[in-house]
Amino acid sequence: MKEKKQMKTKKERLKEVVQWLKSEKIIKNRRHLIRLLGYNSESNFSAMINGMVNIPERFLVNLANLDNRLNVEWLRTGEGEMLRDIKSSFQFISANNIMGTNVQGNGNNVSNSSSTETDKLWLIIKQQQSEIAEQRAEIKRLTDVIVKLKTN
Q1: For the purposes of burial, counting CB atoms within 10 Å of the CB of 42, is it exposed (0-12), middle (13-18) or buried (19 or more)?
Q2: C-alpha distances in Å from residue 50, one per residue of 3, 21, 41
Q3: What percent of the chain has pLDDT over 70?
Q4: 104 or 84: which carries more pLDDT confidence?
């Protein structure tokens, strides 16, 4: 008989995601994450992470947007896995379309990439996602400044 896996609490899931983001070098530390998500107060952020206040949907979506492998549904409900298997899906599609051979046409050559090339591409994508997340946080911060200036 299969043993049913104990579902993690939202607090446990959030802490796991933060730890994973650190291990993947998407964030440097908790303060970096707070800045990326556009929060000014560490105490408000800590209250959410520690389950002391309700967590807004926007927070979960923004957190999942830091890396497209994160599964926002898992963050919300605990259903499924923390990470979506995007890389495997990509390789499956590539394998089905190319099937290990070279494709030539219109002067373009497409071949199945080696594992090393694929890993390099994923690293570039991950770095770009981190940069985009930082830019989003800066845009949010600047928008907040503009709103404050307009109200004064």
Answers
A1: exposed
A2: 28, 17, 14
A3: 76
A4: 84
